Structure formats: C-alpha cells, structure tokens
Amino acid sequence: MTMKITGTGSALPERKVTNFDLEKLVETSDEWIQKRTGIAERRISDGETVSTLAADACRKALEMAGKTADEVNLILVATCSPELLLPCCACQVQAMIGASGAVAFDLNAACSGFLFALNTAYAYLHTGLYKNALVVGSEVLSKLVDWSDRGTCILFGDGAGAVFVEASADEMVRGNGRRAGMECMVQGADGAKGMVLSCAERAVNNAFTSQKQTQSPYIYMDGQEVYKFATKQVPACIQEALDKTGLAVADVDWFVLHQANVRIIESVAKRLKADIAKFPMNIHKIGNMSSATIPVLLDEWNRGGRIKEGDRLVLSGFGAGLTYGASILVW
Ligand code: COA
C-alpha cells in the first residue's frame, strides 16, 4: 500500500509586512535582513487564526483532489501556535469544513511538524487503518514573537498549507517508469539541544505550589546554534534517505526544504553537491512560517505547474526540538 498526494492548498493572511515596516519597530535594515536571511516581506495575521487558515488550506486541497469533506478519514494538523490549547486545531478544522467522519488531532514538531505529520499519515495509510488524510501545517507565529527582539522578529510569518493524501493499492507507474508514492522517510530528534530554540507556555502558578515561576512567553533563539544544526543535519538526513533507497542526488527533481533562511538552503545544496535550481524558494515573500512552509511551497510549485507526474521530490525540514527529517516521494 502506498500513499499519494492528490491535492494541495494554502492560505495566507492578507496583511504584508515588509522589512521597511520592521525598520520602524527595531534597529534593523532591509539590506541586513535580505543579506542574512533572503526575506523581504512576510504575512502577519490581522484576525486570521491557525484554525481559519488551516481550514481554508484544507478546502482548497480537497477541491483539487475532487473530494468532499465527508469523505475525509483523518485530519492531522501540525502546529506550535494554536489559538486554543483545547480543543485541538484539527478538531476545529473538522468542524469548520464539516468533515464529521474524520479522526482529528494535532501534532507539534515545530518547523518539522508538517513532515512528521505527513509521515504519521503515511504510517496509518500504509497499514490500511485509514484510506485518506488531510495533512496540514498552520501557524500564527506573530503572537509568539517578541517584536522588540530584532534577532527573531525579522524571521517569522503566518500562514497555512495542506495536502490531501490517499492510500493506493495499485502501484501506479508513471511515464518515466517511476512508481508514484512515498519512497522513504527519515526522522530524528535531539532533545538535549532543545533549548536553543524555545518558547514557554504558562507556568505552574497556583495556591498549592511553592515554585512561583516567571518565564518569557516569547520565542527565544540562539540563531547561530540553530544555523549550525540545520546546515549539518539537513544534508545528513537527506543523504541518509537517499542511501536507504539507493538513490543519488541526480535522481531527485525537486528539494522542497523548510524555508528558514536562503543561506541555509544554499549551504544544503552545496553540501549535497546539488544544483541550486532544484531548490524552490518563496521565503523572500513569506518568511519562515514554521510547519506551514513546506506545504505552502509545495502548493505554489504544484499549482504553478512546476511539479510533473513522475517527478521525484525530497521534502526536508528542521526546527525546534530539535527535530529534523526528510521524505522522498514520486509525484
Ligand atoms: N538587524 C541588524 N542587525 C542584527 C539583526 C537585525 N535584525 N539581528 C542581529 N543583528 C546583529 C547582531 O546583534 C550582531 O551584532 P554584533 O556583531 O554587533 O554583535 C550581528 O548582527 C551579527 O549577529 P549574528 O547573530 O551573528 O548574525 P547571523 O549572521 O548569525 O544571522 C540569523 C542571524 C538569525 C539570521 C542566523 O543566525 C540564522 O538564520 N540562524 C538560523 C535561525 C533559524 O533558521 N531559525 C528557525 C529555525 S526553524
């Protein structure tokens, strides 16, 4: 049993915030941000929420797949910024789109979240437990960002992307002889280094505890440590996935990477000795949207007609946890 992506969708907040807008908030410049990150602008929520963005992206993915909400078996939402702790975002999405027959739950692996959710869906579909799933990455990071911290506020944006995946028993052979579907997945975590990128929830603080805690509710990041981790771990896990499948870099048509920093993507391409033209990027206009970056980029590339049947894709992400992963699939 294999799994194919049959629909993609995305949703972004209307409001654009440029680097010039940020110059008015913190001591920074458009030139510095573009040179160090490749980001020129990002979308910031002005009322859109993690669940409304996710639901919009899901509707578009379903429409592309030619499915209705009542046919959905499973909804997995990857997010680290839900508007509610309870109920989970996936259940909110279920209600919003009317997928009353679906099982729904959230998963948090930060910027690797979409990839981990996709792999989780694959595990369910591969074993025959469910026939299809909506897999979503959705974030409103703007509420977790300290807008006076120039080291982090320039990086992040809000948005959502979704894919509809279907189990398929037939080994559909594409024109180029490749079998459509998931070929391999590699995932990893290094919790011991987790505090280099963190964000606290509410502290335990009640009449019964002597441990009165105060903690910043905003994202803390040691940018250089995260940078070192990403540039080492991402090419290593892509190489591991290629080795597992007996494939070479030349067998891959597109490397759809988490959009955190253009320099990180360029470094990964260099380490893999891969052509940078095979690495689609949209970070300049939407910044780092954590779990949403990979599905939003996938949707843009798919709707733009860039991904053709039979193309082999590597999806790879990294993020807080620290977490990382790579999946290989044929479209
Ligand atoms: N504007 C202007 N100057 C800034 C700045 C900003 N927005 N942010 C930091 N600086 C300054 C620093 O204060 C420092 O000044 P100093 O030399 O006087 O001390 C200088 O720029 C260099 O800072 P540094 O942190 O060394 O920059 P960098 O080249 O490492 O770039 C990041 C910073 C955040 C862009 C980079 O480390 C990065 O992208 N890391 C990975 C982050 C990431 O991907 N996070 C998400 C993971 S999912």
How would you describe what is shown here?
- It is built from 9 helices and 13 strands.
- The chain has 331 residues and is of the alpha/beta class.
- The two termini are 15 Å apart.
- The mean pLDDT is 96.
- It binds coenzyme A (COA).
- The site of coenzyme A (COA) has 20 residues, from α2 and α6.
Looking at the chains present, what oligomeric state does this protein adopt? single chain
Number of separate helices: 9
Uncertain runs with pLDDT below 50, 5 residues or more? none
- Radius of gyration over all CA atoms, rounded: 19 Å
Order of helices and strands: EEHHEHEHEHEEEEEHEHHHEE
Structural class: alpha/beta
Question: What compounds sit in this structure?
Answer: coenzyme A
Q: What coarse outline follows from CA principal-axis ratios?
A: globular
Relative helix content:
25-40%
Largest sheet: 5 strands, mixed
**Spatial separation of the terminal alpha carbons:** 15 Å
Nutshell version of this structure?
31% of the residues lie in helices and 24% in strands.
List keywords for this structure.
13 strands; five-stranded mixed beta sheet; four-stranded mixed beta sheet; 9 helices; binds coenzyme A; 331 residues; alpha/beta
